[in-house]
């Protein structure tokens, strides 16, 4: 997948929040979604993270419709579960030789922001991933960057890619609902 292909997968009306590291710190950039060329150039900067859900204005909580679903996977057993997924991901981004991955599923129809967290929670629960990384305000790692904040720079690469697109129902419809994290309060 090229940077232009990733732009096409993430594209939606509005703005993308991009955070990158530069010589003097970290910068937050609000990139209009229709600006393909600058967006694809920024994806190659060091420590680059981009919003998976476009924003309707320059506010991290002003979500537009999502064009992807995603799950953050941090353990080796997560990858084993991902290999048995009923609907294959469109892209799997891996951080160096670690077990840290981000799996993305491209949507054939945009999903309302109020359902994104629920769908991503199902994905995280099914693959034993990190639930908090599936919130609409989360930023995902660019597959064209490298992480420089560690002792040694870490390459980020595309471990898997496919041309699969599906509806949210196709992707998470057969997965179990994630349990309510506050259920223990109601039980007490």
Written as H for each helix and E for each strand, in order along the chain, the element string is HEEHEEHEEHEEEEHH
Number of helices: 6
- Described by the principal axes of the CA atoms, the overall outline is globular
Number of strands: 10
Protein traits:
188 residues; Alpha-Beta Plaits; 31% strand; globular
Structure overview:
The chain is α+β, with helices and mostly antiparallel strands and 188 residues long. It has one domain (3-177): RepB DNA-primase, N-terminal domain (Alpha-Beta Plaits), CATH 3.30.70. 26% of the residues lie in helices and 31% in strands. The chain is built from six helices and ten strands; from the N terminus they run H-E-E-H-E-E-H-E-E-H-E-E-E-E-H-H. The strands form two sheets. Strands 4, 5, 6, 8, 9 and 10 form a six-stranded mixed beta sheet that branches. Strands 2-1-3-7 form a four-stranded antiparallel beta sheet, covered by helices on one side. Strand 1 and strand 2 (25-32) form a beta hairpin. The longest helix has 15 residues, at 113-127. The chain is globular. The N and C termini lie far apart (49 Å). The mean pLDDT is 87.
Concise synopsis of the structure shown:
The chain has 188 residues and is of the alpha+beta class. It has six helices and ten strands.
Which secondary structure elements does this structure contain, and how are they paired or packed?
Elements: H1 3-10, E1 15-22, E2 25-32, H2 36-42, E3 49-51, E4 66-73, H3 76-83, E5 91-95, E6 101-111, H4 113-127, E7 139-141, E8 146-147, E9 154-161, E10 165-166, H5 168-172, H6 183-187
Parallel strand pairs: 6-10
Antiparallel strand pairs: 1-2, 1-3, 3-7, 4-6, 5-6, 5-9, 8-9
Helix pairs in contact: 1-2
């Amino acid at each position: 997948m090229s940077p232009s292909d990733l732009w096409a997968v993430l594209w939606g009306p509005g703005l993308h929040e991009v955070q990158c590291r530069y010589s003097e710190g970290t910068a937050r950039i609000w990139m209009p979604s229709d600006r393909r060329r600058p967006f694809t150039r920024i994806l190659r900067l060091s420590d680059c993270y981009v919003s998976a859900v476009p924003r309707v204005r320059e506010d991290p909580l002003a979500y537009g419709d999502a064009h992807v679903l995603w799950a953050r996977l941090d353990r080796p057993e997560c990858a084993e579960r991902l290999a048995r997924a009923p609907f294959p991901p469109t892209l799997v981004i891996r951080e160096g030789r670690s077990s840290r991955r981000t799996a993305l599923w491209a949507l054939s129809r945009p999903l309302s922001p109020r359902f994104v967290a629920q769908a991503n929670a199902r994905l995280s629960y099914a693959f034993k991933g990190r639930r908090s990384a599936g919130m609409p305000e989360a930023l995902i790692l660019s597959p064209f960057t490298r992480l420089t904040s560690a002792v040694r720079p870490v390459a980020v690469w595309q471990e898997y890619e496919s041309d699969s697109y599906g509806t949210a129902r196709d992707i998470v419809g057969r997965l179990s609902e994630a349990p309510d994290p506050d259920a223990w309060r109601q039980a007490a």
